[in-house]
Amino acid sequence: MTPRTGTEDGHVPVPADPRHHVADPRARLRAAGLRVTAPRQAVLGVLGEHPHSTAEAVASAVRSRLGSVSTQAVYDVLAACVDAGLVRRIEPAGSAARYETRTGDNHHHVVCRSCGATADVDCVVGEPPCLTPSDAGGFVVDEAEVVFWGTCPSCHAARVGLAGPTTARRPVTQHESHHHEERRT
Amino acid sequence: MTPRTGTEDGHVPVPADPRHHVADPRARLRAAGLRVTAPRQAVLGVLGEHPHSTAEAVASAVRSRLGSVSTQAVYDVLAACVDAGLVRRIEPAGSAARYETRTGDNHHHVVCRSCGATADVDCVVGEPPCLTPSDAGGFVVDEAEVVFWGTCPSCHAARVGLAGPTTARRPVTQHESHHHEERRT
DNA sequence: CACCGAGACTGGAACGAGTCAAGAAAAGGA
DNA sequence: TCCTTTTCTTGACTCGTTCCAGTCTCGGTG
After folding, report:
1. What are the start and end residues of every segment in region (Disordered) (chains A, B) (predicted)?
2. Is residue A126 part of a domain?
């Protein structure tokens, strides 16, 4: 994800989007039976603009809107929203958890190995083929989660035209984010 | 840290032999060009017997064989083996990393939501259908990782016993009960 | 429209899983 | 065997996240 610096404009004028995906946070909170508070609206707003943000990224974005919000509050809000089904939490290996407001459809993700950028991928072949493992060893499966690993456009470009010095790119992944796998082109 | 130029790249992948996870640890280590040490043999041995173990589980199992081995040594060994392609590391959301000796084939996993038990699942429809997302948003994808979430046989039985059928699909990500382990395909 | 209680936030400490660094101990080729 | 290289031991430390206890506030009620 790209935590751009300039953080949004104070309020979202309901851009008349197709679904209520990007609808007014207030409305969604109410609909979910959750209290409407500033931190919650802010969190939903931020996530709407920057999907796949980490808790910390959300926290700082929220702070830049509201002034000061405790980290704990952000975690609480996120947890509450996840519980209520307003937010989905994904946890790609080797990085902190990321959150997004697109719920309901079981879409998947592509994650960049080098910078951690994440993008949505609609369900693979149209229908969920992955939902039926040939043999689940007796498990009762209720969800299939797919993560595609690869290289995002910009990292790929950087790598191809490389020879470039260590221009401080965005070291998004602090933990071991490089599982050198390759093979299989 | 971005995987900048080279540094620790260029490891020589071991010719993946499907039977490797049954072979003598010593032989495998040699074949991979790694030194043969007691901790390493023990780690591979343990993983052979208990696939999908966490680092901590491996550590304690190894200790019960060798007496005393530092946690750090276990992490080092695991990392070395992963690098050499002798061990694969998986990291299901909400639990610590797990390791297995079955490498080479890109198989997937089923994870039990309530106890964390993990089992292998052979690639879904025979061939990897998941490897080709319809639209990867410009990403260059090189691997697809699939995790099936559900309930393992014993947890399922337990649940059915005292409540209605599995209807509640809530994210049970609490620290799962310990040492509830595997079952093979 | 002030009141009140469950449910939100605050701040700080605590935790689990891993990583880093420096030195002691071995593995194995010469 | 000796010596170099790699591995193991200790122990401090980071990160992301959670737990706790106290304070504040949303929003339903009198």
Report:
1. 1-22, 166-185
2. yes
Nearest nt to the CA of A71 via C1' is C10
Residue type, B144: A
Note if the pTM is more than 0.85: no
**pLDDT level of residue B146 (50, 70, 90 thresholds):** confident
A137 token code pair: 């060893």
33-72 of B, contacting A, C-beta below 8 A: none
C-alpha distances out from residue B59 to A161, B118, B133, Å:
43, 18, 38
**Under 8 Å between Cβ of A146 and B136:** no
Q: Do A139 and B126 touch (CB under 8 A)?
A: no
- Domain of B135: which CATH number? 1.10.10.10
Instruction: With respect to residue B25, please indicate whether it lies within any of the assigned structural domains.
Output: yes
Write the pLDDT tens digit of every residue in A143-152: 888 898 989 8
Residues of A in contact with B149 (CB under 8 A): 141-145
Question: Are the Cβ atoms of B139 and A112 closer than 8 angstroms?
Answer: yes
**Nearest CB to A140; choose among B11, B124, B166:** B166
Separation of alpha carbons B72 and A82, rounded Å: 35
B27 C-beta less than 7 Å away from strand C: no
pLDDT for A104 equals 82
B92 within domain boundaries = yes
| Residue A76 maps to a domain | yes
Asked if A120 and A102 count as a contact pair (C-beta separation under 8 A), the reply is yes
| Shortest Cα–Cα distance, B137 to chain A (Å) | 7
Q: How far apart are CA B158 and CA B112, in angstroms?
A: 13
Residues of chain A with C-beta less than 8 angstroms from the C-beta of B116: none
A24-64 residue pLDDT tens: 889 999 999 999 999 999 999 999 999 999 999 999 999 99
Type of residue found at A60? S
Q: Chain B residues with CB inside 8 Å of A93's CB?
A: 90-91, 97, 145
pLDDT digits (tens, 9 = 90+) for B61-100: 999 999 889 999 999 999 999 999 999 999 999 899 999 9
pLDDT at B55: 95
